[in-house]
């Protein structure tokens, strides 16, 4: 199924704009998992099973798997999601960016090896670095635009406009996506919850393009401001990501139940603002 | 050993500015390797052994390994280089870029799991996305600046200067690195051979910062123009990368010998211009 079709169905059927980020850090796992050889998979699987009916998407962050030689556990996790929760699309958070011939390899990694439904991509190298992902057609390609971290302003907030017409770099990225790269309707954009005014600006520039919004929860972004700035006319259009606040809500054997409670509260808090 | 110390020693002792890029594509391998389970490792190992005395660095591109579930072969390859050619530093071409907590995981992947001496990093997310790599101190951090691909101009060539003072985005990246991020002297920059005037500009902005220059060979960049634009006072300062032209110089069982001939010709062509 096309990523956008799956995402829209998940928004509606689950009544949720919540994206559950899967950033598994074994140092933060409950003690009973610590010595298990497949701890990363088991931890994420239990989180997934406890939150799947509350989520419009899952977003595993590949660095947490790669740092621990656990690509096989990432494969198993995505396979588990497709098998047991087929209505929830998987966004591989990889933020790749390279020349076309190399981007083709990264696209194989994301879409064929890991079987992700969408991938995050860095726009710094421009159009031909994005095309190999777009070429898959039914996969989502979510471009970094305005990121939620402090250093995000170093480049993204620079004025690249013609004389007398201010345009920030992140606005140019949004415009490139809306006017050129999204010709097949499979693009999204990453805009941090820490910058609601910029979420509103990106929404204004991009029409109905889905926005992946990290930065609520541990990073301190405001839910109400995010929803008001980023929702589309039908009250959707957003994948509001929470990772650490959900994953590490509990420290005991009931960690998945604790995660579910936070996920439910977060989904409801989002829905209260739609 | 500090990456910069190793790189300077390799430039001098090997009399070479040639970086051999390792982008192993099994579809282009000699027929006798095709069915071997460790073909990627064996192909790269033979290229490495045939060219190590001609190279100032090796640059494996991780996407080619990741697309084929061959991270174990990448580990074995880097281990092989460290064991048999310890004087040649290894640059992991990964172009990572993420928030600080995720960048810490990518740094573990590159420097602890794969034991690379340096990594390529994307600057789009700004300073805190680069700091976890810089924190290793003895490792090299090579930031994308002006890339060799056609889409490189989409963002990198935008004017971000104050009114009346043109400054391209790639120039701002070079300046950020030279003035801020390189405080510990472990940064480098990627500048494509397809843009000699911009190599010269980056050299002007960054003093002695080493430049990793892709784009000669298959991508058509000019060696003489690259060397003249980018060399430092002592005739070094450059890691001029060639991947495909060396790797796929031969198609038979003597592919490594063919690769060596092209590597030697390329090194000599570079040296003739220093």
Descriptive report:
The structure is a homodimer of 274-residue chains. With 274 residues, chain A is α/β, with parallel strands linked by helices. Chain A has one domain (3-271): TIM Barrel (Alpha-Beta Barrel), CATH 3.20.20.70. Helices cover 44% and strands 14% of the residues of chain A. Chain A has twelve helices and eight strands. Chain A has helices at 3-14, 39-51, 62-66, 71-84, 100-113, 131-134, 152-156, 169-181, 196-206, 223-230, 244-247, 255-271, and strands spanning 18-22, 57-60, 91-96, 118-121, 140-146, 187-191, 211-213, 238-242. An eight-stranded parallel sheet of chain A has the order 2-1-8-7-6-5-4-3. In chain A, strand 3, helix 5 and strand 4 (118-121) form a beta-alpha-beta unit. In chain A, helix 8 runs parallel beside helix 9 (196-206) and helix 9 (196-206) runs parallel beside helix 10. The radius of gyration of chain A is 18 Å and the shape is globular. Chain A starts with a helix and ends with a helix. The mean pLDDT of chain A is 96. The interface between A and B is large, with 53 and 53 residues.
List the helices and strands and how they pair.
The structure is a homodimer of 274-residue chains.
Chain A: H1 3-14, E1 18-22, H2 39-51, E2 57-60, H3 62-66, H4 71-84, E3 91-96, H5 100-113, E4 118-121, H6 131-134, E5 140-146, H7 152-156, H8 169-181, E6 187-191, H9 196-206, E7 211-213, H10 223-230, E8 238-242, H11 244-247, H12 255-271
Parallel strand pairs in A: 1-2, 1-8, 3-4, 4-5, 5-6, 6-7, 7-8
Helix pairs in contact in A: 2-4, 2-12, 8-9, 9-10
């Amino acid at each position: 199924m096309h990523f956008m079709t799956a995402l829209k169905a998940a928004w509606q059927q689950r009544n949720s704009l919540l994206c559950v980020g899967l950033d598994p850090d074994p140092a933060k796992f409950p003690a009973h998992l610590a010595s298990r050889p497949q701890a990363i998979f088991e931890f994420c699987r239990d989180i997934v099973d406890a939150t799947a009916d509350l989520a419009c998407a899952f977003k595993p962050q590949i660095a947490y798997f790669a740092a621990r030689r656990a690509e096989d556990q990432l494969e198993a996790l995505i396979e588990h999601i497709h098998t047991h929760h087929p209505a929830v699309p998987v966004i591989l958070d990889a933020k790749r960016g390279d020349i076309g011939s190399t981007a083709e390899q990264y696209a194989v990694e994301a879409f064929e090896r890991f079987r992700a439904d969408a991938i995050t991509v860095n726009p710094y190298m421009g159009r031909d670095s994005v095309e190999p992902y777009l070429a898959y057609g039914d996969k989502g390609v979510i471009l970094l635009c305005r990121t939620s971290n402090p250093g995000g302003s170093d480049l993204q907030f620079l004025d690249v406009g013609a004389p007398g017409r201010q345009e920030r770099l992140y606005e140019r990225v949004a415009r490139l996506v809306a006017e050129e790269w999204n010709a097949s309707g499979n693009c999204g954009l990453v805009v941090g919850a820490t910058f609601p005014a910029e979420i509103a600006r990106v929404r204004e520039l991009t029409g109905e393009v889905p926005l992946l919004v990290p930065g609520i929860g541990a990073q301190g972004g405001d839910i109400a401001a995010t929803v008001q700035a980023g929702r589309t006319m039908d009250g959707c259009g957003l994948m509001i990501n929470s990772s650490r606040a959900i994953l590490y809500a509990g420290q005991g054997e009931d960690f998945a139940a604790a995660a579910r409670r936070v996920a439910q509260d977060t989904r409801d808090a989002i829905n209260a603002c739609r």
